[in-house]
Amino acid sequence: AQSLLENRSYEVVVYGATGFTGSLVCLHFARHTKAGNFRWALGGRRVEALQALKQEIEECGYPNPPTGIIVGDANNEDALTELVKQTKLVLTTSGPYSQLGLGLVKACAEQGTHYVDITGESIPFVRDSIAKYDTIARRSGAQIVHCAGYDSVPSDILARMA
Predict the structure, then answer these.
(1) Nearest to 29 by CA among 44, 17, 46, 20
(2) pLDDT single digits (tens) 140-159
(3) Alpha carbon distance 115, 132 (integer Å)
(4) What is the three-class DSSP state of 71?
(5) Angle at CA 146, nearest 5°, toward 140 and 152?
(6) 54, 46 in Cβ contact below 8 A?
(7) What gap in Å lies between CA 97 and CA 92, rounded to an integer?
């Protein structure tokens, strides 16, 4: 499974890059990652918005701006497959996940691409994701990580307090 990832163009694609949370993630990557070995790209559905964000980040003068843009609509399975084939990991901030997320999980699971999201939609999205794609992800070596902060924090705190 690791060999699937060896010749990928990017370490990370931030999908949903032009949204509020996605743009904050992108600014953080540009500012706090080292140029050279860490190549990352902006991902989303509107090329113009992605180009504008890339230019904005480059103008900030941060040490590691994105090196690419990948366009892929959440409702276009072929575009999502092409997107995930280019990276080792997709970090998605694009919700609502119950409406837009399963296609990206599927593409990652099938292509052996690691996946991280910030969903707080444990039911039905996370449940459906596991039911449909866990076996495929295990076979390909893809690691699917849901609820990695932000939207999931309130429910995590409530569970801890219970």
Answers:
(1) 17
(2) 999 999 988 766 566 666 66
(3) 15
(4) strand
(5) 175
(6) no
(7) 9
